[in-house]
Amino acid sequence: MAPRFTQAAIVGVGLIGGSLGMILRRRGLAAKVVGVGRRLDNLKTAIEVGAIDRYVVDPAEAIQDADLVVLATPVDTYDRHLKEWASRLKPGAIVTDVGSVKGALVEQSEKAMPPGVHFVGAHPIAGKEKTGAAAGSEDLFMGARCILTPTRHTTQEALERVREIWEATGSVVLTMDPHMHDQILGAVSHLPHVAAFALINALIDIRGQLPALDLVGHSGGGLRDTTRIAASSPEMWRDIFLWNRDNLVRFIESYEQALGRLKGLIRTGDASGIEKELERAKQERDKFPARPATRS
User: How far is CA 68 from CA 54, 114, 134, 277, in A?
Assistant: First the structure.
């Protein structure tokens, strides 16, 4: 089968971009994959692991002949990137991304496209705490969901070509309004990351108050499971939190209310009330489908 794309440019060859590059190359979806990044050691690793065919440090050099461009950098960099090189994209090219925020970011990216160039938002819900091309894997997306976020400006052809890519990765592909995406993911992904980061910082504060306590040395699976995602990239999550701030602040307030209820019950020694709160949570948690441990 002939490659679906003559040249794919991956801007940001980290875990997600690198894994996607492996799939594009090894499954013949792109005849050539060019990587763009800031760190030469990571780009050299990307070649060694088979994520890209070659690399450049200037995005404009990579995208000028590309018919597929994948933005896999922190979401706050999209605007800067597109202002620098979007005007050089050739007609018919498709720009897509892998960011965890859509909404206003999709609208902004669409406006940056020159005539004849198409933007299709995508969010593969897969990952690890490790970063960089060395952590990439051809089966990273297998069985995970990938949400595409078309708008009224998205052409059916561009949408289907991006869908084909993600179906080839083994993902279960869904479509969703970009603003609805941010509401849903704000609750089920962004809020848990807030809680995990905040819990670790609370433990740091407790350790400062009680320095004689060896907290980490006595931690078990519960703490590790609860805070696993706090090992994620601070740069990436900083941008996600800020780009989805309106939804996230509202959800944090709901979390604070739930935490406050439990705090009040514990303070007053209300055993029955505590058990009801915990049972309510357990019943809801028991409904969750099983998920692979590497998904986040």
Answer: 15, 14, 23, 50
User: Contact, 7 vs 34, CB < 8 A?
Assistant: yes
Helix (H), strand (E) at residue 105: helix 103-111
Q: How do residues 20-54 score in pLDDT, each as one tens digit? A: 999 999 999 999 999 998 889 999 999 999 999 99
For the whole prediction, is pTM greater than 0.85? yes
Task: Return the bridge partners of 114, or none.
Answer: none
For tokens 């995508």, the residue is 122
- Is 73 in contact with 48 (CB distance < 8 Å)? no
| Contact between residue 163 and residue 169 where contact means Cβ atoms under 8 Å apart | no
Instruction: Return phi, psi of residue 189, to 5°.
Output: -125, -50
- Higher-confidence position of 219 and 98: 98
Give the integer Cα–Cα distance in Å for 12 and 43.
Answer: 9
Our CA dihedral for 52, 58, 63, 69, rounded to 10 degrees, sits at 60
Answer yes or no: are the C-beta atoms of 13 and 51 closer than 8 Å.
yes
Residue-wise pLDDT for 222-273, tens only, equals: 898 999 999 888 988 999 999 999 999 999 999 999 999 999 999 999 999 9
Per-residue pLDDT reduced to its tens digit, 102-124: 999 999 999 999 999 999 999 99
Rg (C-alpha) for the chain, rounded Å, is 21
Is residue 252 within 8 A of residue 190, CB to CB? The reply is no
Dihedral of alpha carbons 128, 55, 83, 24, sign: negative
Extract the tokens encoding 151: 């708008």
Q: How far apart are CA 271 and CA 140, in angstroms?
A: 44
Long-range CB pairs of 75-78, under 8 A, 24+ apart, other chains included: 75/99, 75/100, 75/101, 75/105, 75/236, 75/239, 75/240, 75/243, 76/238, 76/239, 76/242, 76/243, 77/239, 78/105, 78/108, 78/109
